[in-house]
Amino acid sequence: MKIFCTLTTLAIAFSYAPSAFAEEAAKAPELPSTEQIQFFETSIRPLLANHCYGCHGEETQEGELRLDSLAGILTGGTAGSLVVAGKPKSSLLLTAVSHRDSELRMPPDEPLSDRQVADLTRWVDMGIPHPESGEVDFVPSRENIDIEAGRKHWAFRPIASPDVPGSLGFSSSPIDAFIARALDQHNLVPVERADKRTLIRRATFDLIGLPPTSDEINAFLADKANDAFRRVVDRLLESPHYGERWGRHWLDVARYADSNGLDENAAHGNAWRYRDYVVQSFNGDKPYDQFLTEQLAGDLLDSQGDTALKHQRLIATGYLSLGPKVLAEVDGQKMEMDIVDEQIDTIGRGLMSLTLGCARCHTHKFDPLGHDDYYALAGIFKSTHTMESFKLVARWNEVSIATVDDLARKQENDTSLAAKKQQIADQVAIATKQLALPAGETIPTDVETRFPESVQSKLQKLREELEQIEETTPIMPTAMAVSDGTIADAAIHVRGSHLTLGEIIPRRFPRVLSDDDQPNLPDDQSGRLQFARWLTSGDHPLTARVMVNRIWRWHFGKGLVATVDNFGIQGEPPTHPELLDWLARQFMDGGWSIKAMHRTIMLSETYQRRSSADANNASDNASNNTSIDGDNQFYWRSDIRRLEAEAIRDSLLSISGQLDRMVGGPVLQTPNRTLVFNHTSQDASSYDTTRRSIYVPIIRNHLYDVFQLFDYTDASVLTGNRDTSTLSPQALFLMNSEFVTEVTTSMAERLLKKPSSRQTRIARLFEESYGRLPTKSETGHVAQFLTQLEQHAAVRDQTQAWQTLCQSIVSSSEFIYLR
């Protein structure tokens, strides 16, 4: 039986050692003593010959690993060494043969004996003595990250301040100037501006996720001023529903959920506080740099005695705690590092659009991010107290956010509770004494049965009063939050395993994005605050670029960088790099205001264009040298976009008059930390609400079926770019579901409630559903359809006929797509 017998196990296990670790591993050992050479020859070489050389010897080198020479041992497999001289615990060879790692056990079928493992451990501890030690000076590492070359990647360069191109006959918007230059370079001609009805519907859905009302449409149509659309945008930005719409976008990035998911799908009973923090932050146009800093390190900010601000910032750090966790993991160290990994991956892809998590097990295969860069960050988040306990079943950390009034109510209740208990105890003591029990007799457990009926009755009343006090005991509010924990740098985990530790890496930031001489992080702080300030310093090449690209994507349906969560080497380059940098620079110079960025984008002609096609722009026309841009890569028109799941549901509730527009508050009915959907399929979730979709509970592993149907995000991971599918079940849902039947019945009842002509009702139905009036032909066809329905034997009354019409209207593509 050979220790390393397959290419797949070997190549994966020993590839991509960290640069610092690889250099240490590759150093030639010191000259061994005669006794050490003898130990190698008598104990180690026979072991390797019997178990290893068949796959990793002179004739065969699976995984490019050769173990019959010292050079081969030091070089290791595809890109790393098996051993670190003098450090058995850091040597992957010992992890494999000792079977400490459940995923890497060698030999897989017949383990080595304890004596053989002990011999290998002793050999590594000696410094891997070998007869060839004097002949091998140094074996270079297979890994080498060229940081300077990496910094030349477009996303890692400093954000430029590009000059705005000449307008080329377009509006004064700088966005239009950048877009116009690209259009001109590709011989593309933009389509004209969309009509007012299209614009207000597009803008209203974009900013608040709801359809415009008839009154809002007509007010815009009547406003003939040049800045009429600006006033529409300003009004929508001031709506309390703006924060719900754009907060929901951010919750995708924050992988928000109301339950844990995975093995123990426990209720995140206080996650709603983070959700409301996000909504309030967007409504208040909190500067994005402050928004990020609070989520990463709100607990470390000085709130200067402002309790409400302190609590808000504590709630903000729920961002770090919201991820799914294997709460029943028996290995606490593994769980801790898995949580750290999830945090790093979320921060990397969400805030920097970098797949930092790929460097947990090895140096990043594509981006200039070392294994050591990952563990430098891991030290920051390992020094963060995310979990209250790692014992089964583990508990995430929560902190008190009780106000002075909350504490006063609790103290008053505690006082009343103690007084009532004392009153009961006193009554029992007096009544017991009056029984005059014989000297030496122990008070029986049922002593109260000997009390007079009047005393028993009084005690019963007192205990009922006690129960009432206990039932009204105020629950002190808590929030999912983090704090600084035990501060310590992290060791490199070879192959990502905490069982094989390499060099300890000081906490710092990725080298490719930082100055060569980074200041040391404080010994008494995790480094989260310094990390947040580094991200938002204005010199960081990614933070502003990533967020303006997200805002652009949420407005246009695609980003200037299509891979919104990956700006790395494997991501797509920007279609308009200078525009991206101009927007990022404007974002920072404008105080990181997201609302200001909305205005900049939405008031451009680029945003306001029609969605109509142009054959010259979308097809190859060699005769006039027209470029092909069927995908509208250069924004010569507006893309037609389908509404997200939440907007579809909210629109149906809105036009039916059923939508509950209350903002914020808890919605999950399951008590905090209890199972909401368990392994036996016991389901405690409930989606029966008419509130906006942002307030529908997000249960991991058991998502609301309407959300699943219309491409909702996977709440276990961040998603900045939702897919859009077109499936038959979507149409069937609109035509057949009980939910749609209920809302369209309500629509019909609203239309019939007010005395109106049939033509007026049809016009109102079209305007509320599509944002436009029906054509003369459509009015005639709909009227004829209603007449036929009313005469049909299966139709009971006028309401049912109109309900059928309403359901036909909302089942159309025009209802769920934006032009």
TrEMBL record:
InterPro entries: Cyt_c-like_dom_sf, Cyt_c_Planctomycete-type, DUF1549, DUF1553. Residues 1-22 form the signal peptide. It holds the Pfam family PSCyt1. The keyword Transmembrane does not apply. The keyword Signal applies. Keywords: Signal. Residues 527-786 form the DUF1553 domain. PANTHER family: CYCLOINULO-OLIGOSACCHARIDE FRUCTANOTRANSFERASE-RELATED, F-BOX DOMAIN-CONTAINING PROTEIN. This is Planctomycete cytochrome C. It comes from Rubripirellula reticaptiva. The lineage of its organism: Bacteria, Pseudomonadati, Planctomycetota, Planctomycetia, Pirellulales.
